[in-house]
Amino acid sequence: MHILTFTTLAEFPARLNAHLRALPLQDPAGAEPAQSERDAVSTLLDSVLSFETLFHTRLNLMLEKDRSVLDLDAAHESQGSTSLDPFDRIATAFEAARKRTLSILGDLTEAQWARQGTLDGVDVTVIGLVHLLTAHDLEQLADLQRQLAARNAL
């Protein structure tokens, strides 16, 4: 796997945490953020954690079964929605899940990296699945940057 991809995955929890903590705790008028804003942050963290868990499921399927079929929508829907936990609890759970991801990836053989499956009708290798996880991480950071820009426009 490319060292840049592995590094990006490894650095994401800290970057996500920094971005989330950069969101102002109060709006410029001094008002506390609305409950909906707090819920939005918890929902984002919950989503990132759920996506990481889903990644583990997909990766295990690809490693255990030749040409496995990974249905994105069905797998995500089957996970359901988890209750919203406080920021630190979800962030800690995500960091632990990401460490597990990095540990699994660090132990893969060349043959395992080349294993193939089908994700939403498209052929993908394990390395391709990892690139999709990395892209998801970067999309989350981009969304947080847009939120910061919107808040600074107030």
List keywords for this structure.
154 residues, 7% strand, mainly alpha, 6 helices, Four Helix Bundle (Hemerythrin (Met), subunit A), single chain
Describe the structure.
The chain is mainly α and 154 residues long. It has a single domain (3-12, 37-152), classed as dinb family like domain (Four Helix Bundle (Hemerythrin (Met), subunit A)). 71% of the residues lie in helices and 7% in strands. It contains 6 helices and 3 strands. The chain has helices at 3-22, 35-64, 72-79, 87-106, 110-114, 126-152, and strands at 68-70, 116-119, 122-125. Strands 1-2-3 form a 3-stranded mixed β-sheet. A hairpin with a 2-residue loop joins strand 2 (116-119) and strand 3. Helix 1 runs antiparallel to helix 4, helix 1 (3-22) packs parallel to helix 6 and helix 2 (35-64) packs antiparallel against helix 6 (126-152). The protein starts with a helix and ends with a helix. Residues 74-81 have low confidence and may be disordered.
